[in-house]
Amino acid sequence: MEYDADVLIVGAGPAGAIAALTAARLGRRALLLEAKRFPRVKPCAGGVSPRARGVLRRLELWDDVERAGYPIRGARFVTPGGRDTTLVGAASALVVPRTTLDPLLARAAVAAGAELREATAVRGPLVEDGRVAGVRTDGGPLRARWVVAADGANTRFSLDPRPRRTIQTCMAWFEGRFFEPGVLELLFLPELAPHYGWLFPESDTRANLGICVEAERRAGSPIRDLFARFLERHYARRLAGAAACGPWRGHPIVPSVAVEHHAFPGVLLAGEACRLVNIATGEGISYAMESGQLAAEAICEALRSGEDPRTTAARYAARLRRRLAAPYLVSDLFRRRGAPLLEGLARLGARPWFRRLARQAPAATGSSAC
Fold first, then answer.
1. Helices of type H across the chain
2. Cα separation, 166 vs 163, whole angstroms
3. Is residue 110 one of the residues assigned to a domain?
4. CATH number of residue 326's parent domain
5. Residue 78 belongs to a domain with what CATH number?
6. DSSP-based three-state secondary structure for 199
7. Is residue 366 part of a domain?
């Protein structure tokens, strides 16, 4: 039987790119499909969490990403109770716009031997003999021995029976000197609880601002109206001399409180297609890359052994749970009980000894609504 690839990956975000890179490094023909052309805008604050940094280091990609990013040396927090504190660290976190990060990771996959096809929209699975044998595109079917679905929250490959829990986001970009360079801002406001609004610098003069809120918390208000009020109440004066860069953008985030995998035989889901998102912060880049790597490794093992697709999917799901169960538990606990911790952090932030200690610690944050 003729195949276009051993492993066909749908979606060239972090999950898909790392799946393609891993499969190629393991000697398999990897075909990476992207619906749009790079660079394309992805509504995402772009924070590279400490966990994501660890994944990139293990993949020997961190140096390239670090060069492409903007270093963060501190964070301003506003708590639900109104306490406002700024902590500045000695080391650096990183913000990397997705217009930069995604093509960088895709190029790394190509350098490893994968093939990238942009402007190739996938319309659905190609099913033969009770399992997925490829995908359907506008240009015709593409056949593969396995498929990795990394096509986001609205994937066409999931069989997940769980009700969808949705976090709504809205964000915009501005140019100007209206923020402290190298300092991100997180506003944990009562109207957004348990989520938050943010300002993430991308350079000394450019930053993205946004909000994320659970859909059921919006009380019927359109997300754009909530965002407009957020900007007016908290940033209107500072943005008076800034220039908007393009339209507002938003997208739904579909998290979960448990790591599960539900897909057609012959498919492994990765990233947000598998609902792998931090339910407290909306961060998904680290989980996306980890799941992409695990999916490709499981598939390459299956291609060597010839095992049943359901066995492969079960082994992959078990590895996901082992890797992500603990951070999932912590994120759900923070979502439900995090407000007192934030208030305590703000009180400590007012003490000189704690501020001196913070200057010697990494200015790292895991918050990133994408």
1. 14-25, 50-58, 62-68, 98-112, 223-234, 236-239, 285-305, 309-349, 352-359
2. 10
3. yes
4. 3.50.50.60
5. 3.30.9.10
6. strand
7. no
Integer Cα distance of 291 and 15 in angstroms: 7
Cα separation, 15 vs 80, whole angstroms: 33
Distance CA 219, CA 236 (A): 24
Question: 3-class SS at 320?
Answer: helix
Question: Does residue 364 sit within a domain?
Answer: no
Residue 370 resides in a domain: no
Same domain, 12 and 59: yes
pLDDT in tens, 145-170: 999 999 999 999 999 999 999 999 99
Summarised one tens digit per residue, pLDDT across range 53-102 is 999 999 999 999 999 999 999 999 999 989 998 888 755 689 999 999 99
Q: In this predicted structure, what is the pLDDT of residue 87?
A: 84
219 has pLDDT over 90? no
Residue 364 has pLDDT above 50, yes or no: no
Question: How crowded is the C-beta side of 107, counted as CA atoms within 13 Å?
Answer: 11
Q: Which of 147, 135, 123, 143 is CA-nearest to residue 265?
A: 147
Domain housing 75: 71-94+164-253+337-359
